[in-house]
């Protein structure tokens, strides 16, 4: 069977709902991992998505985070939050908060995690340390499934550009998060855990960026970065027949600042 799996930082599922429904109808993914819902779980537009034939496992609080898996292959063994997921202790908080940044499900023959890795903010910020702790928890928590025979992948907004080739201008990111050796080493540790980066092969552009700032005409000028990734185990990677960034979904008004990343599998 052919399975189409995608990931998309939707940047508010409520604000982008027309775009989401339009894209589901046109791209026809079997499984879509969403990040940055910006809505509480019970506020997710379940019915609108269900009318197109999709079930949803959502996890959100209504703030800037939140993740979901939308599937027309079923949703089994749903898990919300990484088993070892750390919390973030904000300056004005008494206790760390475990943010809704991960959800997993088995969708037909494939098991997937949808993840929204913490941004990190600044290198000397507590959020940066939290980001590294979160990535280490992710590595530990996927070891068993990555080593299994079932196709397995972690998809989402990793907020890390794997290499300088994933940046429109490496000099513009000097001293900033998303590109530090520690963050990139965390991604490398996922590869050492048995997952590999399924790199999109675009038809038109040399660099398959997935995020472009809304400001300064970044998208028309293709001043982007690649931070939305698919990390699959060997059975998943071996089944990949095509992958691409859907830049068309980033065009026009009212879009997310990220584009969907699509992977086709023959299973």
TrEMBL record:
Its cofactor is Mg(2+). Keywords: Hydrolase, Magnesium, Metal-binding. The keyword Cell division does not apply. It holds the Pfam family Exo_endo_phos. The keyword Metal-binding applies. Residues 6-258 form the Endonuclease/exonuclease/phosphatase domain. Belongs to the DNA repair enzymes AP/ExoA family. NCBIfam families: exoDNase_III, xth. This is Exodeoxyribonuclease III. It comes from Kitasatospora kazusensis.
């Amino acid at each position: 069977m052919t399975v189409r799996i995608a990931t998309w930082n939707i940047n508010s599922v409520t604000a982008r709902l027309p775009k989401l429904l339009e894209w589901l109808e046109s791209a026809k993914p079997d499984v879509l991992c969403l990040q940055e819902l910006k809505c509480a779980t019970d506020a997710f537009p379940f019915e609108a998505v269900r009318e197109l034939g999709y079930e949803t496992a959502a996890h959100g609080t209504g703030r800037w985070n939140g993740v979901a898996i939308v599937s027309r292959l079923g949703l089994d063994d749903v898990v919300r939050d990484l088993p070892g997921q750390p919390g973030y202790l904000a300056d004005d908080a008494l206790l760390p908060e475990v943010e809704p940044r991960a959800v997993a499900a088995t969708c037909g023959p494939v098991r997937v995690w949808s993840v929204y890795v913490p941004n990190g903010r600044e290198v000397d910020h507590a959020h940066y340390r939290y980001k590294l702790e979160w990535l280490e928890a992710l590595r530990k928590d996927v070891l068993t499934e990555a080593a299994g025979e079932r196709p397995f992948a972690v998809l989402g907004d990793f907020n890390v550009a794997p290499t300088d080739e994933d940046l429109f201008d490496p000099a513009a990111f000097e001293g900033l998060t998303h590109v530090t050796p520690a963050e990139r080493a965390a991604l490398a540790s996922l590869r050492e855990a048995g997952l590999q980066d399924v790199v999109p092969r675009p038809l038109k552009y040399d660099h398959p960026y997935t995020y472009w700032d809304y400001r300064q005409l970044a998208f028309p000028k293709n001043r982007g970065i690649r931070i939305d990734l698919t990390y699959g185990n060997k059975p998943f990677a071996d089944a990949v027949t095509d992958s691409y960034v859907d830049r068309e979904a980033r065009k026009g008004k009212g879009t997310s600042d990220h584009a969907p990343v699509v992977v086709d599998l023959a299973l």
